[in-house]
Design a protein that fits this description.
Length: about 375
């Protein structure tokens, strides 16, 4: 849809006719809904659909200039697809992967042209979200990177160029927040406490509401589940999130959330089983433990050269993850709070809670030199 919207013809390849038909019908339905709201004419709908071709044959991609793979997050499947594309697609074409987490260099190794491979990580829903993480592989050529940046702009995306590391920039930093959120609900907070604090900070929703919206069972495998996390326990009870009316929250028919007494009881039992002595946790601690490790991880990302500048990290978080615009992104927020305060709190947390809070060397250096992230050139 991003490409059709700007007049670029698209061939979409699926493995089964049923899936292909479903995908094409979804695109048409999206356009029809836009037309009903008066933002497109029916002629526009037909024009865009006329530029879209569906097929089950990868061979039909032979003369394409850009191919974007969007299969499951499974390295073996992705490498198999890229090996096939390498044999089929013409020389000089860009081969892009939409992976949100996997190693782009390893994916590129399945081809004889790693210089043509790059990550195009669209954010969901891809036709709405403006962020596009462009992941430069070790061998991605400069023309491939430059063309990708220009094309991102043409299809109306805000592109952030990032390096290859687990989770790239956005998900790598999100993992810090998710870890602390999960620990906080065992130590004394409830999911709705954590969500309220982050909502009040300016996020559109907190981590537990977000998990319920996405579906707690994404990536969950029943056969491998061992009641080792709250998420596993909830999935085992068939509490999958908004889609079936129960997750961390209880939902009514209109999907309005209310704190769940069932989940509260489960959390208390799980904490007791883990031997955790629960305590009262302040809103300040919730916010600092969710936000400061993200700022610290951003410093590591800059240190490693996985992002070129601090503002690129802020762009990722504002446009891809709902960081409140008026707070300027995590790195700008760090500068606003004062990096000395962030460092002092990270050291205090490291002393009381362990190595997960170890300050980044760059954060220590910036404080020692009296600099801010925005001073980095």
């Amino acid at each position: 849809m991003n490409f059709l919207n700007v007049g670029i013809p698209v061939t979409i390849v699926e493995t089964k006719q049923e899936a292909l038909d479903r995908g094409l019908a979804t695109i048409r339905r999206n356009y029809e809904n836009t037309a009903k709201r008066g933002r497109l004419t029916q002629a526009d709908v037909e024009k865009r659909m006329g530029m879209l071709k569906g097929t089950l044959a990868l061979e039909e991609l032979a003369d394409r200039d850009l191919v974007i793979e969007a299969v499951f997050e499974n390295m073996d499947i992705k490498k198999d697809v890229f090996a096939k594309l390498d044999r089929i697609v013409k020389p000089g074409a860009i081969l892009a992967t939409n992976t949100s987490y996997l190693n782009v260099d390893e994916i590129a190794s399945a081809t004889k042209r790693p210089e043509s491979v790059i990550g195009w990580h669209f954010f969901s829903p891809a036709n709405v979200m403006r962020l596009l993480e462009l992941v430069r592989g070790e061998k991605s050529s400069k023309p491939v990177i430059a063309t990708s940046m220009q094309m991102a702009r043409k299809i109306g995306k805000i592109a952030a160029l990032v390096g290859v590391c687990p989770g790239f920039v956005g998900n790598r930093m999100l993992a810090q927040r998710q870890r602390e959120a999960q620990k906080l609900i065992l130590e004394g907070a409830m999911p709705w406490d954590v969500d309220r604090v982050l909502y009040d900070f300016g996020f559109p929703m907190g981590p537990f509401a977000m998990s319920d919206l996405a579906g707690l069972d994404i990536g969950w495998v029943k056969e491998k589940s061992s009641s080792s996390t709250m998420r596993e326990i909830l999935c085992e009870m068939d509490r999958r999130g908004q889609k079936n009316g129960a997750g961390f929250y209880d939902y009514d028919e209109a999907r309005n959330a209310t704190p769940s007494p069932v989940v509260e009881k489960l959390i208390l039992e799980f904490a007791a089983k883990k031997g955790v002595n629960r305590r009262t946790i302040s809103d300040d601690e919730i916010l600092e433990r969710c936000i400061y490790p993200m700022i610290n991880e951003g410093a590591k990302i800059l240190e490693e050269g996985m992002a070129i500048r601090a503002s690129d990290i802020d762009i990722v978080w504002i446009n891809g993850y709902g960081w409140p615009v008026y707070r300027g992104g995590p790195m700008f927020t760090g500068d606003t709070i004062g990096l000395d305060k962030v460092l002092a709190k990270m050291k205090a947390f490291e002393g009381s809670m362990g190595a997960e809070f170890k300050p980044a060397a760059l954060l220590e250096k910036m404080v020692a030199e009296g600099k801010r992230f925005q001073d980095l050139k």
